[in-house]
Write a structure and sequence with these properties.
24% strand, elongated
């Protein structure tokens, strides 16, 4: 079905780009095989209107022209659908090359490499790469989770998904029905932001806690998708990025380096433990639970209670 639609859209685009005068619906129907096979005029009209809207959404500028007799015709002028020449200086080319290297561990590596090859064939300058073998620094976004690729495609295609998810305070996974919005990488971990259908609210899921396969589901989204800025802020807030208070914790010496990197103050207690002050935001309790017996919350009391509750839930399971 997807291949047939893509072929139909391509044929319609070629017809509209190849004509010097507006073509009527009747002429377009007679020129495209898929339209000839439409069972009725109503079926053709619905198909044509959907295809026209899809092409416009993809960026094709389609003009609607009415002649003296009142008939409607369509065409896509080449001058309106021609991209300007791509002109990049050496610094811009270097930035694109650097961005392409970020995805060498993910499915996007092939697309990034192919895009660079096409740009270079079009005349993009070969930039001297400051991140080649002689450098100790290499940009990377690690993508090891099997859920990344199907969720990335589901976000792109706006398809609901189901998956089994294990919360930080539970030893067992639960099935979630989610309308995926976007994926965000925060402090080396990938998060999915979306609408949890069963809970009727937006939720953020850490990909490393998704177990089993991600399965697509038919149907449209039931909740409105917020803009990118709102989703990104939700991910950062849920992961603890938006800190409103300071927490004081005891951390076993030689353990919890991710926590130490966030600490605003560290004091050696001399008893095999260090005392840390770290920003306290939403989601910190779930993160602290991951360090198990190496962490003890001293203040605030509500954070300590949340961590204890999560640990008890894990022990109970």
């Amino acid at each position: 079905m997807a291949i047939a639609k893509a072929e139909r859209l391509m044929n319609l685009a070629l017809c509209l780009l190849g004509t010097r005068r507006p073509l009527s619906k009747r002429e377009l129907r007679g020129s495209i095989e898929a339209y000839l096979e439409a069972g009725s005029d109503d079926s053709f009209n619905r198909m044509f209107e959907r295809d026209k809207d899809d092409l416009r959404e993809l960026g094709l500028v389609i003009e609607t022209v009415e002649n003296l007799d009142g008939d409607i015709g369509y065409l896509a002028r080449r001058d309106s659908n021609r991209l300007p020449p791509i002109t990049l200086d050496a610094e811009e080319a270097a930035a694109l090359g650097l961005a392409a290297k970020v995805w060498q561990q993910a499915r996007l590596a092939g697309a990034a490499s192919g895009a660079l090859q096409k740009l270079r064939a079009a005349g993009m300058p070969e930039a001297e790469d400051a991140y080649e073998v002689h450098s100790a620094l290499e940009p990377r976004i690690p993508v090891h989770e099997a859920a990344f690729e199907p969720l990335m495609l589901a976000c792109r295609d706006r398809r609901p998904v189901t998956f089994d998810y294990r919360k930080a305070n539970s030893a067992r996974a639960e099935q979630r029905q989610v309308e995926p919005w976007t994926l965000e990488c925060w402090r080396g971990h990938w998060y999915l932001a979306g609408w949890d259908r069963e809970r009727g609210a937006e939720r953020v899921f850490r990909l490393s806690r998704i177990t089993g396969k991600v399965r697509s589901r038919a149907g449209a989204f039931s909740a409105e998708v917020p803009d990118v800025v709102t989703v990104r802020e939700t991910v950062e807030s849920w992961a603890g990025e938006t800190a409103t208070r300071t927490a004081r914790i005891r951390l076993r010496a030689g353990a919890g380096y991710p926590l130490r990197s966030r600490a605003t103050a560290v004091r050696d207690r001399g008893d095999g433990w260090d005392e840390l002050e770290i920003p306290y935001g939403h989601g910190l309790d779930a993160w602290l639970v991951e360090f198990g017996p190496d962490v003890v919350v001293e203040d605030p009391a509500d954070l300590r209670a949340d961590v204890v509750d999560r640990l008890r839930a894990v022990a109970k399971d």
